[in-house]
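Submission sheet (multi-component)
Chains listed below:
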Amino acid sequence: MIPLAGLLAGILAGLYFDVSVPLELQPYLPIAIVAALDAVFGGIRAVIEGIFNDKVFVVSFIANVLIAAFIVFLGDQLGVGSQLSTAVIVVLGIRIFTNVATIRRHIFHA
Amino acid sequence: MSLLNDLFAKPLDPGYEDAAARRRAAGERPTSERTWRSPALAVGLVALGLLLTMAVLQVRNTASVVSSERQGLIEQIHNEDARVSRLQGEVSALEGEIGELENDLLQNSAAGQQTREEVESLQATTGAIAVTGPGVVVTVDNAEEQSAEDGTDRVLDLDLRQVVNGLWAAGAEAVAINGQRITPLSAIRSAQDVIQINYRPMNAPYEVSAIGDPRSLARDFGDGSGGQWLRTIAASSGIRFDVSSDESLTLPAGNTPLAFATPWEGAP
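Outcome: structure written.
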């Protein structure tokens, strides 16, 4: 219950305060979102498999977001920002898809 | 390929397995009640909710900014169009006023009368005043089914130039396309696939009106280069055209003021 309440509180806080992303951070937002989604689906799969761990989830979530943003930042500085974003999206996308497929198998047994 | 294999085989963070193994070794269950009450998890999920909301709001705001910019540009175009029309109306009104004043001045003497007639005939020739008389109307339209990707089944500026040239050659005394008088300063050109006549964009069908002898004009046009050109493009690309005589046509004045050229005093 507490995690759900936290998620809801985050969404409400975002709506209420109407926070806008600073201009310098905007290129990193899409990558951060994909990295966060990867952590979320990994967490859901761990819950279903009964091995969920709060510390692993939070650390992987924050680290994923920060590392993804950092890789894109590094790529931007080296002039290969868009290529590196594509690489990050592909890797994280594959992980998200595989995790969701496993979740689907656990739920529907198919 | 081992990187990709790894990616497919172990998509789950290995940290979960390790943590679970450690707990099992310590004799605990991997996921306990305590896991769900962990403040770190709650904070992480607050951050997740915040991140997702921010992203959604960001996209919404950007979209509305882009569409409002577009709206602003469209409005600006309409405003400027209206301003151009208003200014052109003003120019026509002032030109009419000038003509009236000239008439008033010249009417008073016989020499003035003669000058006035001369001026009017010159103005009619150059397209500075509206003219009326019998003539023909050549209507040219795009092909009914437009499928060619290179746009050859649409009327091109070249086609209209051929028609106008054909009409002049057939003895036309004044020509206008869709109400734009063709004067010595007129340009028939296309910009971005839109035909512009006197720098005004035009749409199909194009009505080319010409004043001249209604019988010989239509016949000579049909036999001449203009008619041949139209028949050729009609056969090759399906462009439709029609030539009809008209007892009374009125062609508007062309708007062609001279800014730099002045009459040479030494003219014979």
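Remark: Chain A touches chain B through 52 residues (CB under 8 Å).
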